[in-house]
């Protein structure tokens, strides 16, 4: 896994504009980025300030803090927002309910005992990376097999075999049943029979005639679309000093005096499944003088 972390330092500039015979000073901002890179699930970064462990890996949360200094000569309002950049490509993968390998590729089947609910991982790709689960249960008459995926994974197509003998042909189209999911994150099969085997001619047995405790061999295949996942940003220690606007910005609640330094902090959590993506973020900040109602002219959606 790797990320590029881009950070920004606020520089306040003073520009002068003449409006209606009156001179109004507006403070604007530019950004000077500092790029930091890390590999193998480890981050080493000095700006912004990362509190706690520097071993920033999926599943961990860290506190990220920026210090913002008003280097101008007048009091000003300041607002900031987080800009994230990452590959938003949706990838397609083949997935199998994890169990015993059979046939070609990485096809899998697992065993279910009639009368005993069971659940296995739905794994995608050659490494069978978890993307959901397959649950099996029955009521004596019907067999229920349900695919459920994580919220960043959607089902495109499913293929299923359930029989009294293990499957031998791993081609998804030859498993026996096929469905295009109506809902993107789940697919339920309800069957009142199972296959005797994959051997042609195909024969079936009524599920009600199968004795309790009998082993049913199940091969559950799916084609899935995997959507990119990114860190979760939550306001941190200084959140009471900032107002979250309707425009995606955080506004500092009071004017900032010339030479004063303020801080903004976030708890940033990397999802457990965040891996192999190029991800960067930076803090975009700008400011406008606090006098002459300039803030309402420049930032019409401000919360002041």
Notes on the protein architecture:
It is a single chain. The protein has 304 residues and is mainly β. The chain folds into 2 domains: 2-87 and 230-298, no CATH class; 91-226, no CATH class. Helices cover 2% and strands 55% of the residues. The chain has one helix at 294-298, and strands spanning 2-19, 22-39, 49-51, 61-69, 76-86, 91-97, 100-101, 108-113, 118-124, 129-138, 143-149, 153-163, 177-179, 186-191, 193-195, 204-206, 215-226, 232-235, 242-244, 250-252, 261-269, 279-289. Strand 9 (118-124) and strand 10 (129-138) form a beta hairpin. The longest helix has 5 residues, at 294-298. The chain is rod-shaped. 30% of the residues are buried. The model is unreliable at 1-46 (pLDDT under 50).
What is the element string, with H for helices and E for strands?
A: EEEEEEEEEEEEEEEEEEEEEEH
User: Could you say how many structural domains there are in total?
Assistant: 2
Shape: rod-shaped
What's the assembly state of these chains? single chain
Supply Rg: 28 Å
Overall mean confidence score, pLDDT: 80
The counted number of beta strands is 22
Structural class: mainly beta
Distance between the termini: 42 Å
Characterize the main sheet: 10 strands, antiparallel
What would a concise description of this structure say?
The protein is built from 1 helix and 22 strands. It has one helix at residues 294-298, and strands at residues 2-19, 22-39, 49-51, 61-69, 76-86, 91-97, 100-101, 108-113, 118-124, 129-138, 143-149, 153-163, 177-179, 186-191, 193-195, 204-206, 215-226, 232-235, 242-244, 250-252, 261-269, 279-289. The strands form 5 sheets. Strands 6, 7, 8, 9, 10, 11, 12, 13, 14 and 17 form a 10-stranded antiparallel beta sheet that branches. A 4-stranded antiparallel beta sheet has the order 3-4-21-18, with no helix packed on it. Strands 19-20-5-22 form a 4-stranded antiparallel beta sheet.
């Amino acid at each position: 896994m790797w990320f590029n972390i881009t950070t920004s330092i606020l520089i306040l500039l003073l520009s002068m504009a003449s409006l209606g015979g009156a001179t109004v000073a507006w403070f604007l901002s530019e950004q000077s980025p500092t790029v930091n890179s890390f590999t193998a699930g480890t981050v080493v970064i000095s700006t912004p300030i990362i509190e706690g462990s520097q071993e920033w890996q999926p599943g961990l949360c860290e506190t990220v803090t920026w210090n913002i200094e008003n280097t101008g000569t007048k009091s000003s309002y300041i607002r900031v927002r987080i800009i994230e950049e990452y590959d938003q490509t949706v990838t397609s993968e083949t997935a199998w309910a994890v169990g015993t390998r059979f046939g070609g590729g990485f096809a899998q089947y697992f065993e279910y005992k009639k009368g005993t609910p069971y659940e296995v991982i739905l794994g995608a790709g050659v490494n069978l990376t978890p993307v959901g689960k397959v649950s099996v249960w029955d009521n004596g008459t019907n067999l229920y097999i349900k695919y459920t995926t994580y919220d960043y994974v959607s089902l495109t197509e499913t293929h299923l075999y359930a029989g009294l003998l293990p499957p031998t042909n791993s081609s998804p189209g030859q498993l026996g049943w096929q469905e295009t999911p109506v809902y993107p994150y789940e697919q339920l099969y309800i069957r009142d029979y199972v296959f005797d085997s994959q051997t042609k001619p195909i024969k079936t047995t009524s599920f009600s005639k199968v004795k309790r405790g009998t082993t049913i061999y199940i091969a559950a295949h799916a084609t899935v679309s995997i959507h990119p996942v990114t860190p979760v940003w939550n306001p941190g220690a200084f959140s009471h000093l900032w107002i979250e606007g309707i425009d995606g910005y955080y506004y500092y609640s009071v004017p900032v005096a010339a030479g004063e330094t303020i801080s903004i902090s976030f708890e940033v959590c990397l999802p457990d499944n965040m891996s192999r993506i190029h991800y960067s973020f930076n803090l975009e900040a700008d400011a406008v003088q606090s006098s002459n109602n300039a803030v309402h002219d420049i930032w019409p959606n401000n919360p002041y």
